[in-house]
Amino acid sequence: MDTAVAHASPAAAEGSKHKLSAGKLGIWLFLGTEIMFFMGLVAVYINERFGAEAWPSNYIQGFDPQEDPYVLNNKHFGAANTFVLILSSVLVVLAHNAVLRGELKRMRVLLVLVLLLGCVFMGIKGVEYEHKIHFGIYPGGEGAERMGAIVAEEKGLDPAKVNDGNMFASTYFLVTGCHALHVIGGIIWLLAIVLLSFRSSFGKQSHYMVEYFGLYWHFVDVVWIFLFPLIYIMQAV
Amino acid sequence: MNATAHNPGDHGHHHEPGLIRKYIFSTDHKMIGIQFMLTTLTFFAVGGLLALGVRWQLAWPWQEMPVIGKMLFSETGNVISPEFYTMLFTMHASVMIFFVIIPMLIGAFANFCVPLMIGARDMAFPTLNMLSYWFFWPAFLIMGYSFFVEGGAAAAGWTAYPPLSTIPSAAPASGGGQTFWLVALIFVGISSMMGSVNYITTIIKMRAPGMTMFRMPMTVWSIFITAILQAFALPVLTAALVMQLLDRTLMTGFFNPSDLVVNNVTVATGGGQPILWQHLFWFYSHPAVYIMILPAMGIVSDVLSTFARKPLFGYRPMVYSISGIAGLGFIVWGHHMFQSGMNPMLGATFMVSTMMIALPSAIKTFNWLGTLWRGELHFTTPMLFAVGFVSVFAIGGLSGIFMAATPVDIFIHDTYFIVAHIHYVLMGGSAFGIFAGIYYWFPKMFGRTMSDGWGKVHFFGTFVAMNCTFFPMHVLGAAGMPRRLADPYHYATYEHLLWLNQFITVSALVLGGFQVIFALNFLFSLFGGEKASQNPWRSNTLEWAAPSPPPHGNFEAIPTVYRGPYEYASPEVEEDYLPQHVPTPASTPGATI
Amino acid sequence: MRKLWSLLFLLVPVGAVYLFWIAPDYQWSLPTNKSSFGEGIDKLYNLILWITGVTFVLVNAFLVYFMFRYSAKRENKAAAHVHGNHALEVIWTIVPSLILIFIAFVQMKEWQEVKFQSKFPDALQEKAETEAGEKPSLVQAMARVTARQFEWRITYPGPDGQYDTVDDIQTVNELHMPGYKGDEGQEPIPFLIDLESADVLHSFFVPQFRIKQDAVPGMTIKVWFDAKLDGGPEDDLEFERLPKNQYDLVCAELCGWGHYKMKGRVYVHTPEEYQAWLESQGPE
Ligand code: HEA
Ligand code: HEA
Ligand code: CUA
Ligand SMILES: [Cu+2]
C-alpha cells in the first residue's frame, strides 16, 4: 500500500516516515463509521431498555429456570464469549508480530487459531439463539410476548399496553445479530488472508494485511466488551 | 476495503485502459465523476417530472392531466389518486435528495475535483471509488423497480415516519414499496460511506508538495468537511433503516407502540416508540442538509473569486465557518421535532443551537459580498449562478430563522413555509451551486465549453422562474396551508389560495422548460462545443494546470504549490492571476500567504 | 448590458417585499388570530419578519450595488488585492450573533406558555389555589381528542369529570368549546385536551388558534388553547369562507392517503351555549 500511494503523493512521501499510511487511515475511518453504526443500535437499546416499564429480568415466574435456563441472556455464555474474543484479539497481535519477523508458518497457525475462536464464538451464540428460538423468544414470538406479559402483570400493568417482552427479544437479536454479522465478516476476511498467505508473493511486506484485519478484529472485540455488560449483566437489575 | 487498498496495479503506469475499463468499470476518478454526473442529471429530470405531477394536482386538483393522464391513470379515471399523490412527493424528495443532490455534489464534483485540485494522480483507493459508484446502481434499480410493485412506490414521505411507514395496513399504497425504499437507501448509505472514507484519506494523504491544508481551495475544504459529516452521521441512518426494515419484515417493534389497531388490523408486535425514529432520522438528515449545501458553498466561493478576479474575502473565516456548521450540525436535529411530542424543554435548547448555526452561514454570506466588493466582475454563466446562489440562499437561510423560533414554528411547522425553505436552500442553493460548477468545470471535464449565450438564457429563466415558483410558497405557508395535502381546498380556510397555487404551477412548468434548454446545451456542447484551452477562465487552482480534459494520471509531472488558491490581481505579476503552481522569484516553497 | 444583470437581481428584493406588502389584502398572510397566546406568536412572527426582512434588503442592496458598480469594463486588472479585513470579520460575527441570541431568548416565554405543562392554565390555577390554601377546583372545559385514519374522535368527560364512564359524550370531527368576548374584557376560558392517536401520527392544527401538536400513538399529550368569540367587522373577510365562530381543524402530519380529508370543525360557543350543548348531548 505504501508503495502504491507514495509515488502519487509527494506530500505524503515527505512526512510518511512516522505518519500512518493511507490504507491504515482508511481502515481507521471505516471503523469510525462502524462505531457510529453501533452507536445508533446501542442508543436504541438503551432507550428501550431504560424507558421500559416491565423489562424481563433475571427471574420470571412461570418460566422455570431449572427447565429452561437459557431463556434470558445467560451471563455465563456471555462471559465465555468475552473471553474467547479477547483471547483471539491477543492472538492476532501475535500473528502480526510473527509476520513482521517473517515467520509465516507461525503466523498461519495463529491466524487459524483466531479463525477457530471466531467459530467458537459463533457456536456459543448459536446455542443461545437456538434456546431462545425454541422457547419462542424472538421478535413476534409467542414466548417473548408471554414473558413480557408475566412481568407486566407482576407490576400491575396492562399486558396489552406494555410489550416489553417483544422489545427485549427485538433489541437482543438486533444488537447481537449485527455484531455476529461482523464476526462472520471477520472470519471470511481472515480466511482470505490465510489462503493468500500460501501465495509465493506473500511475505514480510504483506504484514499490513494482518495489521488491517487486526484493527478490525479489535474493533469487533471492543464492541462486544460494551455489549456484554449492557446485555448480559445490566438485564439482571 | 482491504482488498482494494493493496492494488498497486493500475496506479503506477499511466497507460490508457481498454474501452470497458475506461468508460464503464473505470477506476479513474474523472470518469467516475462524469458517470456520477450523467446519472444524477438523468435523475434530476425524473425528480423534476415527479414534482410537476405534484404541482399539477395542487393547481387543478382531481382534473385530468392532458395527454399523460390517460396513459398513467386510466384505472383511477385519468386523474391522480390521493395514494398516488403521496407517492409523488415522497419519491420526488427521495430522488432529488438521495439520487441527485448528494451524489452530484459528493459523487460527481468531489470525485472529479478533489484529486485534480490537490495535485494528485487519483484517489487514494481507486477500486473502492469504482465500487462506490457501482453500489449506487442496486439503489437505482430497486427504487426504480418499486414503482411497479403491487401498491406502488413508497408513500410515507421522504422522512418515512413510523408507524405509517412500518405498518403495511396503514398505507395500502406502500405494500412493498416502502421495503424497497429502505433497501435502496441502505445501498446509498454504503456507497456514500465508501466515498467519504476515500475523500478524507485522499485529502489528508495525497496533496501535492507545498499544498498545505490552508492552501486548499474552498471546494476541497468543503468536501473534506462534508465527507467527515457524512462518515459520522450516515451510519446512524443506516442503523435506523435496518431497524425499520426489520420492523416491516421480521416483526420487531422498535418504532411501533403496543396495542395498535391500524385500519382495523391489529398490529401483532410493538413496544417501541415512534419518536425514536425521528431522532435517529434527523440525527443524520439534519447534517445531511449541510452535506447538501457545503460543497455548493465551496464551489460558489471558488467561482466568485475567479470571476471577481479578486482574492476570496476572509479565507480562514470561511474555513472556520464550514467547520463550525459541521460541528453545530450534529446538535440541532431536534428543530425538526418541535411539535412532535418531544419534551418542550429540549425544544428550547435545540432552538438556541439552531439559532447559533445561522451564524457561520451569515459570516459566509458577508464574505461573499466582500469578495464582490472592489472586484472586477465578469458575468459569465458560472458567475451568474454563483451570485444567484448568494441571493437565493439568503432567502432560504433567513426563512430558517422563523422555523427555528419554536413558538412561530408552532404555526408554520408542516406548512408551505417549510416547503419554501426547502426549495430555496436546495433548488436555489444546492442546485445553483451545481449549475455554477457544471458550467465552470465543463471545459476541464470534456475539453469543450458550454455555450455561454444559452447558459445565460438558462440562468435568466431559472432565476426568474425559480423565484416565481417558490417565493409565493412563503405566503401560502403564512396563510397556514399544510404541506403533503392532496387537496388543500377541501378546507374552507385555504379555498382562496387556489389561484396562487396555479400561478406557482405555471412557474414550475416554465422552470422545467428552462432545464430542457440546459439539457440541450449540455448535450450539444458535449459533442459540438467550442474546444477549450487548458485554462479558459484564467484560474489559479491546480486542475487548470492539467490538460483539458486531463489524461489518465492527470498531470505530466506532479505540480509543486507555492501559494494559496486565490491570488488574483496580485501586484507580484503582470497578469491578473497567479496560479498556485507557478513559481515567482519572490515566492519560496515554505512561505504562507 | 453587463449592468443589466444587477437589475435582474434587484427584482428579487423588490418583488419579495412587494408580495409580503400586498399579501394581507388577499388574505395571503396569517389568518385572523383567535386565541390569547396567538397574539404573542403573531408578534414574534412579525418581529422576525422585520429583522430578517431588513437583513435581506441590506444584503441584496449590497449585492446589487456591487454588481452594478464593479462589473468589468474590459480586462484591465482593476480588482483590489485584498484578502480580508479583520475588523469587518469581527463586526459581522458579533452583530449577527447578538441578534440571533436576542431572537432565541425572546421566544422562551411564549414557548413555555404554550407548551410547558408546568405553565398550563390549569397548573397555574392549581398552584395559585394551593398557595391561597383553597381546595383545587376542577378545570371545566376539557376533552380527549383521539386521532385516527382519517377522523377526529372527541370525548367529553360528562358531568362526573371522568373519561371512560357512561356519561361520556362522544362526537366525531366536531369539537365544541367555550369562547370569551375579548372585546368586552372577559377572561379567557382555557380549553384542555388530551391528545391521543389510535394508529399513526397525526397533527392537531387549528390555524386561527395558532396551535399545532402531533398526536403520537402510545402517548397522551396535553394541549391547551382558548378562543375569542367573533366580534367586529375585521373578521368579515374570513366569514365568506367560514361561518362565524367556526374553524377548520386540520390534520397537519402525513397519515396516509386520506391525510388531505381528515377535516374536523371547531365550534366556539358562549359559555352558556356551551353548557347547553353539553347538557343536550348528555344521557337522558
Ligand atoms: C441545503 C439544505 C438546508 C439548509 C442549508 C438549511 C439551513 C437551515 N435550516 Fe433547514 N431544512 C431543510 C434544508 C436545509 N436547511 C430541509 C430539507 C427541511 C425540511 C425537512 C422536511 O421536513 O421535509 C428543513 C427544515 C428546517 C426546520 C424544521 C422546520 C419544521 O419542520 O417545522 C428548521 C427549524 O429550525 C430549519 C432551520 C434551518 C436553519 C436555521 C438553517 C440555517 O443554517 C440557515 C442559515 C442561513 C442564513 C440565516 C442566511 C444567511 C445569513 C445572513 C444573510 C446573515 C444575517 C442573518 C441574521 C442576523 C438572522 N430547517
Ligand atoms: C433536492 C431537492 C429538491 C429539488 C431540486 C426540488 C425541486 C422542486 N420541487 Fe421539491 N421537495 C423536496 C426537495 C426538492 N425539490 C423535498 C425534500 C420535499 C419534501 C417532500 C416531503 O414532504 O416528503 C419537496 C416537496 C415539494 C413539494 C411539496 C409537496 C407537498 O408537500 O405536498 C412541492 C410542491 O410544489 C415541490 C415542488 C418542486 C418543484 C416545482 C421543483 C422544481 O425545482 C423542479 C424543476 C425541475 C424540473 C421540472 C426538471 C426539468 C427537467 C426536464 C423537464 C427534463 C429535461 C429532459 C432531459 C434531461 C431529457 N417539492
Ligand atoms: Cu391525520 Cu394527517
Ligand atoms: Cu435541520
Give a description of the structure:
- The complex is a heterotrimer of chains A (237), B (593) and C (284).
- Chain A has 237 residues and is mainly α.
- Helices cover 72% and strands 0% of the residues of chain A.
- Residues 1-18 of chain A have low confidence and may be disordered.
- Chain A has eight helices and no strands.
- In chain B, the strands form two sheets. In chain B, strands 1-2 form a two-stranded antiparallel sheet. A two-stranded antiparallel sheet of chain B has the order 3-4.
- In chain B, a hairpin with a 2-residue loop joins β1 (261-262) and β2.
- In chain B, α6 (126-134) packs antiparallel against α8 (177-205) and α14 packs antiparallel against α16 (416-446).
- The longest helix of chain B is centred in the N-terminal third of the chain and has 37 residues, at 82-118.
- Mean pLDDT of chain B is 89; it is low at 1-13 and 589-593.
- Chain C is α+β, with helices and mostly antiparallel strands.
- Helix content of chain C is 38%, strand content 20%.
- Chain C has helices at 4-22, 36-69, 86-115, 121-131, 236-239, 271-281; strands spanning 142-148, 151-156, 169-172, 174-178, 191-197, 202-206, 211-215, 221-225, 246-251, 264-269.
- In chain C, the strands form two sheets. Chain C has a five-stranded mixed sheet with strand order 3-2-1-5-8, with no helix packed on it. In chain C, strands 4-10-9-6-7 form a five-stranded mixed sheet.
- In chain C, a hairpin with a 4-residue loop joins β6 (202-206) and β7.
- The termini of chain C are far apart.
- At the B-C interface, α5, β1, α12, α13 and α14 of B face α1, α2, α3, β7 and β9 of C.
- The structure holds heme-A (HEA) (2 copies), dinuclear copper ion and copper (II) ion (CU).
- Dinuclear copper ion binds next to loops of chain C.
Topology:
The complex is a heterotrimer of chains A (237), B (593) and C (284).
Chain A: H1 2-6, H2 10-15, H3 22-51, H4 75-100, H5 104-134, H6 142-154, H7 164-196, H8 207-233
Helix pairs in contact in A: 3-7, 3-8, 4-5, 4-8, 5-7, 6-7, 7-8
Chain B: H1 2-5, H2 19-23, H3 29-59, H4 68-72, H5 82-118, H6 126-134, H7 136-146, H8 177-205, H9 218-249, E1 261-262, E2 265-266, H10 274-291, H11 294-308, H12 315-329, H13 344-372, H14 381-404, H15 406-412, H16 416-446, E3 448-449, H17 452-478, H18 498-528, E4 530-531
Antiparallel strand pairs in B: 1-2, 3-4
Helix pairs in contact in B: 3-5, 3-6, 3-18, 5-8, 5-9, 5-16, 6-8, 7-8, 8-9, 9-10, 9-11, 9-12, 11-14, 11-16, 12-13, 13-14, 14-16, 14-17, 16-17, 17-18
Chain C: H1 4-22, H2 36-69, H3 86-115, H4 121-131, E1 142-148, E2 151-156, E3 169-172, E4 174-178, E5 191-197, E6 202-206, E7 211-215, E8 221-225, H5 236-239, E9 246-251, E10 264-269, H6 271-281
Helix pairs in contact in C: 1-2, 2-3
The structure holds heme-A (2 copies), dinuclear copper ion (CUA) and copper (II) ion.
The site of one heme-A has 32 residues of chain B, from helix 3, helix 5, helix 16 and helix 18.
